Amino acid sequence: MLGKTANGLFWMYRGLERAENTARLIETGQRIALTRLGSTDDEWRSVLQTAGSLNGFIQRHEHVTKDAAIDWLLRDKDNPSSVLSSVEHARQNARMVRTALTGEVWEAMNGTYMRVKEVLARKISERDLSGVLGMIRQRTGLVRGATHGTMLRNDIYDFARIGTFLERADNTARIIDVKYYVLLPSVTSVGTSLDNVQWETILRSVSARGGFRMEYGASNEPRDIAQFLILNRRMPRSLAFCAHKLRDNLGYLASEYGHNAPSLAKIDHIERSYLSFDIDAVFDYGLHEFIQKMLTSLSELGQQIEVDYRFYE
Amino acid sequence: MPCNTRLAWTTQISDGVGHTGMSDQVYFDEMWGTGGSEGTVRSPYAPFNSWLNGEDPKHLRAKQREAEDLFRLTGITFNVYGRAEAEERLIPFDIIPRIISGREWQKLSRGIEQRVRAINAFLYDIYHGQEIVKAGRLPQEMIARNEAFLPEMIGVQPPGNVYTHIVGIDLVRTGPDQFYVLEDNARTPSGVSYMLENRETMLQMFPELFSENRVQPVSTYPTDLFNSLAACAPEGLDRKPTVGVLTPGIFNSAYYEHSFLADQMGVELVEGHDLRVQDGQLNMRTTRGYKPIDVLYRRVDDDFLDPLTFNPESALGVPGIMDVYRAGRLTIANAPGTGIADDKAIYSYMPEIVEFYTGERPLLENVPTWRCSEKDALAYVLDNLADLVVKEVHGSGGYGMLIGPTATKKDIAEFRKKLEARPSNYIAQPTLSLSTVPIFTRAGLAPRHVDLRPYVLVSPNGINITPGGLTRVALKKGSLVVNSSQGGGTKDTWVLED
């Protein structure tokens, strides 16, 4: 496989994952806005921050308002992480690696792009928002489903998965990064309605309310939420789960290529040093510091993969 | 009328009249002959016609839309140069097939094969002994002063002695038995992906048609292409040859086709920056390091192939690739310098070229051509601009040409100036009464002018012509320009088993 193709697959699936995550963040923001009284602009500010595009937003807008935030996250071309930009980016990469994809994956991707582009050509009214977000989740799910159901389990698939899980881990880490303070055990106002809303925000933004209940029952201990998002191995968006998948796929590459690349050692190190203890160890280390460390490590891992598999030169 | 759902002709067959100014012109319609819709359907179209008579036009309209959706979803698009807005456009597809009988096709393919053999022999000669010049059959300056002639290719022996691995011969028809070669595409003929996708689409939409008509398949093309390219690999390889397709990139107008062909052949689609010359070999950058490529089907022009040999500004090519080629360690398809054979001034010598190298009379006719570089010809052309088609010698895609009969006086006056300033840059041909095939319009069937580009593969194992090709159709009423860049569409082309 060409290094360029590996690069294209990696970014195609990162783009898809990002589009889906951004849609989910908007959904959460909207949900909070609807269930809270008074100003929710702070909530939108933290959504923008989680999406990693608060700075870009502030450069172009004087105030954070709901409408402006939604439009920016959904369809602004100046925002490289907007849903529209992410889907365009994914499709552009898919065109580049067309020969590595099955016809069904390509058609699902191209159909997603056509639909998203058509729907997001105009500003989305509040009434239509939920339908549009649902469509985005369904369409990205369709590409993932076609990938799962039709692609050979070879290095092509590995790079697709690596892109997916690196993006997903990054997204979960950033959600925690922005909201880490409500998960700290030192917060005394446990059980207040403010905290309940905050926790719900976190769980919703990773589509994990149901999963959390299954694992922890009616608990609303912040400690449990942190454990769930960081270390739970069954939760498909937790850091431990994503790291495990990254390790698997980098491992498959190593055995297919008969060579252990430095990126495999790196993910090994991340798993063993940060994700093999219980949540108390994380709190002892410092939740904020821990998440910062994770974000840096994930970004370094991405760079190492680029080098190991000759994405560029 | 046998059936009230019969599709009405919106126009008379000779509808081109007012547009071309040829008042007594009657065009040959490949479905209806010269009799218009009142005439008798020609025999290759008879089964199709009875099927058509039983179809509800509403249903067909829905099918036409379905075809467009299919094309859009598959991503069969092309990029129009100089139009940021319409970055990716569909080439319109018309659901009425163009049908050629097996007997007609046999005749055509014999002529095509003869012509392609001659072109390869001509190219070999031009870059070696230049016997044709010595024999006085072709003026020396046609070569020496030709931009498409590459001195770097003199004496180079391409693997298998093949120059044009892939050729597209553009044909037009003016009557039941009259075909002309309009153009030889010996560099990088495009459009073959449309030939394949058009058939796929028809098979999906109208499967019943293919049980009623015995249509020769085109679907073997990708395998044939791969085998043909592999058979041209450099000699002495101790492994199966690795083939790659070189594209200028995702923004090229034919990118879809490049990725389609690579995908169908199961080979890598590479760009210049994926390649590097190392240890006297062409290598591609893979996830496991650099791996050799033996045969490069390049869709990049000569000029951009190697910045060390040709255009130093080129970022699309590979520095040093020509050295590998000259050392016989790489096959480049088509060979650099083949453009000399599809040059429009050389075209006018094709009858001589065919005779010189095959010793036979050409089976396919050339369109009579005036070379404006010649004084008498120029005078004639200038006197008759309103009736002629004038083309740039190196032009392509239907750009930079004058179609006298449809041009305004102002167009003609402006073109006259250009022609007088650089006569050798132009050739002129009579306006041909191109045949028509009906297309499906909102109001029913309507005749439109067509041409045909069959695709030819050349290797030491022989010449392979896919039965069919790409039919391009001028969708505008009366128009003679079929190029996709100028509003042309395409049709599925059927060659029947007789």
UniProtKB/TrEMBL annotation, chain A:
Residues 1-309 form the DUF403 domain. It holds the Pfam family Alpha-E. It comes from the Bacteria. PANTHER family: BLR5612 PROTEIN (PTHR34595), SLL1039 PROTEIN (PTHR34595:SF7). This is Uncharacterized conserved protein, Alpha-E superfamily.
UniProtKB/TrEMBL annotation, chain B:
Residues 97-474 form the Circularly permuted ATP-grasp type domain. It comes from the Bacteria. It holds the Pfam family CP_ATPgrasp_2. PANTHER family: BLR5612 PROTEIN (PTHR34595), SLL1039 PROTEIN (PTHR34595:SF7). This is Uncharacterized conserved protein, circularly permuted ATPgrasp superfamily. It comes from Antarctobacter heliothermus. The lineage of its organism: Bacteria, Pseudomonadati, Pseudomonadota, Alphaproteobacteria, Rhodobacterales.
